[in-house]
Write a structure and sequence with these properties.
The complex is a heterodimer of chains A (about 325) and B (about 400). By secondary structure, chain A is an alpha/beta fold. Chain A has 2 domains: about 10-195, Rossmann fold, CATH 3.40.50; about 205-330, Rossmann fold (3-Layer(aba) Sandwich), CATH 3.40.50.920. Chain A has 13 helices and 14 strands. In chain A, the strands form 3 sheets. Chain A has a 7-stranded mixed β-sheet, sandwiched between helices. Chain A has a 5-stranded mixed β-sheet with strand order 9-11-10-13-14, with helices on both faces. In chain A, helix 1 (about 15-30) packs parallel to helix 8, helix 9 (about 220-235) crosses helix 13 and helix 10 crosses helix 11 (about 275-290). Chain B is an alpha+beta fold. Chain B has 2 domains: about 1-100, RNA polymerase II/Efflux pump adaptor protein, barrel-sandwich hybrid domain (OB fold (Dihydrolipoamide Acetyltransferase, E2P)); about 170-389, 2-Layer Sandwich (Chloramphenicol Acetyltransferase). In chain B, the strands form 5 sheets. In chain B, strands 9, 12, 15, 17, 18, 19 and 20 form a 7-stranded mixed β-sheet that branches. Chain B has a 5-stranded mixed β-sheet with strand order 7-2-4-5-16. In chain B, strands 1-8-6-3 form a 4-stranded antiparallel β-sheet, with no helix packed on it. In chain B, helix 1 (about 120-125) packs parallel to helix 2 (about 145-155), helix 5 (about 220-235) crosses helix 6 (about 280-295) and helix 5 packs across helix 8 (about 370-380). Classes of the chains: A alpha/beta (about 325), B alpha+beta (about 400). The interface of A and B includes residues 290, 292, 296, 330 and 331 of A.
């Protein structure tokens, strides 16, 4: 997705492979790191991210768990308190609700309530999003909910580069971090510079520079926004695409700087519109860049309904590049 | 929270340009404070606020022209009971038997919808001193005026009118007079009466009154006319008020609009509040102050909105009689011609006497000539007892 530096040899791999390589690097570089989750060992992970790691690292470090999110996330909290560096996989965000008590009441709160005596350097990975025809209970995008919680860092790698290197930053954080991997990204291929060692996890990034409108998005909607930007450029509309990357804490400056340049903004968020991260981003723009605006703020979000199973209905429900194009066109050249 | 709105400074005003804010958010204001200056066809008018509280938000920036009724600022009462705008006109209480009928609707300026202007466009227009009214149509979302429209308008290099000018535009005022007088002649069925009044007693008394006073404290005959016209209204209150939407609304007080001719042409009739209750000395001072400020283009909003009747006195250089045109929505105008010395029959003899022709033009929808005649008779009578004025 990113053009590599011309002088460097590009590394090219899938998002799934990049995620696996990130886990391998963590396991190899720190003996305190271990993996826990449902079907991550023998089965290789429900999205095959951990395939082969059991053979390479053994049962001590690649631990299949019972079907109890509360229990194994709780174990992650406990081992993190005890000095380990657990990386817990929850199959999808939909099932993380069973572990919400551990995440919110323990992982996030213990460092505060212990007066800083306990750090919880816990990393939780989970898949998120729709588009795979797996119906309402497996297709939600609830990362915006997690971004509501102070004390949590919420990462949404949307590129191979971020899938490869964000984990390192997450492990270095003494506080709990959740990494959301969008299910439609695992098979995507991308490049990154071969000498790249890390990425920052604090800032949003301009993935495509443009003058006319800012498309602000993250995760699985990034590639749709980039497709929309390509389509718009053929119409003479120069769209800038901002990848939020970190939903909490939000990098407001990058957002505001972009909107101050383009003066128009569309926020693309696969979450439901009401009370979403798109609402937060929009409000920050209203608070901090109101006088820069030359058009109303716009959003492209999921329809406010359970995500349907049928393909045509699911497609209609989720943000799509064509919708983004239509909304941008109407902002810039109202009919 | 009270809305401070663009006032209608006359029947003909549709929009005004905000030229100066005299307060900023956080300032405490009380009823009667002048907080803004608005440019109208009648010059720059100081606009008073009729609420008490703290200015919480200024919504319209300097330089912007907005329709009457647009909210200009918000005043946070913060527990302070809002003082209602003291109505110059009091709606009649519905008669008990008329309860079934809807009460007459209070007359309010029609709410004109705001033009949609993007924040960026608004700010750029201020920076470019561009009058947004010059942009006829926006090309943005929902027809909004956006940056590109402002820049296109600015590139036409149309010189924008100076935004902070305070003063009079006589050609604009001509248009305002034309609109108001045309409306008056179109809508108001005038009837006209006149009465010649002997001023011998008045002027003799006035001469004695002025004799031992320095020039600055002396009173002009016009002040006697003004006071007599005002006092006579106490007897004929149906000439004092407004006719709107088919209903006569008698005024609570007598606030005579005093017609002032402006140098270079133009006319304005700001109110002298409670004219009937002021002494002659006070009226003289009020008149001087009004004339001076009217000619500078420096009147206050309440002075333009509160007249309940108009009185015009043509002075030494005027004609012998004047027959006025009512300023809507008022229902009468009283005219005093030039004081001229003429033969006058007194107790069977012809004497040389200073005479003035007092005229009344009144709205026939509200009163008939009988009322008008009684009114002129009262004026004439009052002018025979100047010491009581």
């Amino acid at each position: 997705m990113n053009a590599p530096e011309p002088t460097l040899t590009p590394n090219r791999m899938t998002y799934r492979e990049a995620s696996k390589q990130a886990l391998r690097e963590a396991l190899l570089s720190d003996p305190r790191v271990f993996l826990m989750g449902e079907d991550i060992g023998r089965y290789g992970g429900c999205y095959a991210v951990t395939k082969g790691l059991l053979e390479e690292f053994g049962e001590e470090r690649i631990r299949d768990t019972p079907l109890s999110e509360s229990a194994f996330v709780g174990a992650g909290v406990g081992t993190a308190m005890a000095g380990m560096r657990p990386i817990v996989e929850i199959m999808t965000v939909n099932f993380s609700l069973l572990a919400l008590d551990q995440i919110l009441n323990n992982a996030v709160t213990i460092p505060h309530m212990s007066g800083g005596q306990f750090a919880i350097p816990l990393v939780i990975r989970m898949a998120t999003g729709g588009g795979r025809r797996v119906a309402a209970q497996h297709s939600r995008s609830l990362e915006g909910w997690y971004a509501h919680i102070p004390g949590l860092r919420v990462l949404t790698p949307a590129t191979v580069e971020d899938a490869r290197f964000m984990l390192k930053g997450a492990l270095a954080d003494p506080n709990p971090v959740i990494i959301f991997e969008h299910v439609m990204l695992y098979n995507m291929e991308g490049d990154f510079p071969s000498d790249m060692k890390e990425v920052d996890i604090a800032r949003a990034k301009v993935r495509r520079a443009g003058r006319d409108v800012s498309l602000i998005t993250y995760g699985g909607s990034l590639f749709k926004a980039l497709q929309a930007a390509d389509a718009l450029s053929s119409e003479g509309i120069d769209a800038e695409v901002i990848d939020l990357r970190t939903l909490r804490p939000l990098d407001t400056k990058t957002i505001i700087d972009s909107v101050a340049r383009t003066r128009r903004c569309i926020i693309i968020d696969e979450g439901w519109r009401s009370g979403s991260i798109s609402a937060e981003v929009g409000m920050r723009i209203a608070e901090e860049a109101f006088f820069e605006l030359d058009a109303p703020l716009r959003r492209v979000c999921s329809r406010e309904a359970p995500i349907p199973y049928a393909a045509h209905l699911e497609d209609a429900c989720l943000p799509q590049a064509a919708t983004i194009v239509a909304v941008a066109r109407e902002l810039i050249r109202p009919s | 929270m009270n809305d401070f709105k663009m006032p209608a400074l006359g029947a003909d005003m549709e929009a005004g340009t905000l030229v100066e804010w005299l307060v900023k958010p956080g300032d405490r204001v009380k009823s009667g404070d002048v907080i803004a200056v608005v440019e109208t066809q009648k010059g720059a008018i100081e606009v008073e606020v009729f609420a008490e509280g703290v200015v919480s938000d200024i919504l319209i920036p300097v330089g912007e022209r907005v329709p009457v009724g647009t909210v200009l600022a918000q005043i946070d009462g913060a527990g302070v009971a809002p003082l209602p705008v003291e109505p110059a006109i009091v709606a009649p209480k519905p008669a008990p038997q008329a309860l079934a009928e809807a009460p007459p609707k209070p007359t309010v300026a029609p709410q004109v919808s705001r033009r949609k202007i993007t924040p960026a466009a608004r700010r750029r227009a201020v920076a470019l001193s561009l009058d947004l009214e010059t942009i006829v149509k926006g090309t943005g979302v929902e027809g909004s005026i956006r940056l590109a429209d402002v820049e296109a308008a600015a590139s036409v290099a149309r010189p924008a009118p100076p935004l902070t000018r305070r003063g009079l535009d006589l050609s604009q005022m001509r248009q305002a007079i034309a609109a108001a007088m045309s409306r008056s002649k179109r809508e108001i069925p005038h009837y006209y009466l006149a009465e010649t009044v002997d001023l011998h007693l008045s002027l003799t008394w006035l001469e004695a009154f002025n004799a031992d006073r320095p020039p600055i404290e002396r009173i002009l005959p016009a002040v006697l006319f003004l006071k007599a016209a005002a006092l006579a209204l106490r007897e004929q209150s149906k000439l004092n008020g407004a006719y709107e939407n088919g209903v006569f609304l008698p005024a609570a007080g007598i606030h005579v609009g005093w017609a002032i001719a402006l140098r270079g042409g133009g006319l304005i009739a700001p109110a002298i509040r409670d004219t009937d209750k002021k002494t002659l000395v006070e009226l003289m001072a009020a008149m001087r102050d009004l004339v001076e400020r009217a000619r500078r283009g420096n009147l206050r909003s309440s002075e333009l909105t509160s007249p309940t009747i108009t009185v015009t006195s043509v002075g030494d250089r005027g004609a012998e009689s004047v027959t006025g045109v009512i300023y809507p929505p008022q229902v009468a105008i009283v005219g005093f011609g030039r004081v001229a010395t003429r033969p006058w029959a007194v107790e069977g003899r012809v004497e040389s006497r200073p005479l003035v022709t007092v005229s009344l033009a009144a709205d026939h929808r509200v009163t008939d000539g009988h009322i008008g005649g009684l009114y002129l008779a009262a004026v004439a009578r009052l002018l025979q007892e100047p010491e009581k004025l």
